[in-house]
């Protein structure tokens, strides 16, 4: 009797699909399977009388999706195996490339995984080298799938990125995504500071300088007592995605969550010789106790690029279920 259709099941379990009138070739898309997992697919045919043949088993295995090459290199280096994290990073890389922002990045720290060994890697160059700007941790930092948290007194992450030798003067940005809010204090979330010249390149999301309850963006200028060489705004909440962005010798601007907060016109000095650090600028009184889940370093961004970058970072955090 002629075959009417086929039934399929996985690993001896219940029916997962039924195909009617397939002709000579049986093609089935099984949705929701786990990547890199072995399955036993069983197929049985039935006729017009609904008589079912014996089940025939086929051993098969799923594979990873076709990820972007740069994303794949990061997965290997950082030992990222979780399919949700992989999909989120892959989509993030694709979005930066589509917006022509990827080439403007020198370091991207997406903080996926849950350990220091995973969080240290730079997505843009995931080699385990100082020259690749991988993070080096000191003091006490707590690592989790939601990001990394400083202890407010000793914890720091050195990017190994010195603006004076690796950056482009008058064409630069730094960014940080902060997930927790603590009382205003003399702390910075990302910073490089030269004590002698007092050049500072920093984002302080809720600071006490120049006055309590301010967010401050230093862009390698002398820090006068008035904070005249910085952009600062009232800030009651450190949480969000912040960008400090210099686009020319006489203009730099500040962003939070895709909104341009304002611009400064102070002519810049050169970039600091000290390396950029997360959670501090190296001074004892500047250690942050907030949670950071993303940071970046690169060249300056246009307004359109800064907006697109903010959207991409927000989408990344949403895909990882850790947006503010």
Provide keyphrases for this structure.
324 residues; alpha+beta
What does this protein look like?
It contains five helices and 19 strands. With 324 residues, the chain is an alpha+beta fold. A hairpin with a 4-residue loop joins strand 11 (190-194) and strand 12 (199-207). Helix 1 (69-78) packs antiparallel against helix 2 (83-98). The chain is elongated and about 90 Å long. The chain starts with a strand and ends in a 5-residue tail after the last helix.
Termini separation comes to 62 Å
Helix content percent band: 10-25%
How are helices and strands ordered from N to C?
EEEEHHEHEEEEHEEEEEEEEEEH
Strand content: 35-45%
Helices, by number, come to: 5
Uncertain regions spanning at least 5 consecutive residues: 222-227
What Rg, in angstroms, do the CA atoms define? 25 Å
The computed structural class is alpha+beta
Mean pLDDT: 88
Sheet of most strands: 8 strands, antiparallel
Give the overall form: elongated
Q: What is the assembly state of the chains in this entry?
A: single chain
Question: How many β strands by DSSP?
Answer: 19
Would you kindly provide a brief summary of this structure?
This protein is an alpha+beta fold. 16% of the residues lie in helices and 37% in strands.
Topology:
Elements: E1 3-10, E2 15-20, E3 38-47, E4 56-61, H1 69-78, H2 83-98, E5 105-109, H3 116-119, E6 136-138, E7 141-144, E8 147-150, E9 156-162, H4 163-166, E10 172-178, E11 190-194, E12 199-207, E13 214-222, E14 230-234, E15 240-248, E16 251-256, E17 259-264, E18 275-278, E19 291-298, H5 303-319
Antiparallel strand pairs: 1-2, 1-3, 3-4, 5-19, 6-9, 7-8, 8-19, 9-18, 10-15, 10-19, 11-12, 11-18, 12-13, 13-14, 15-16, 16-17
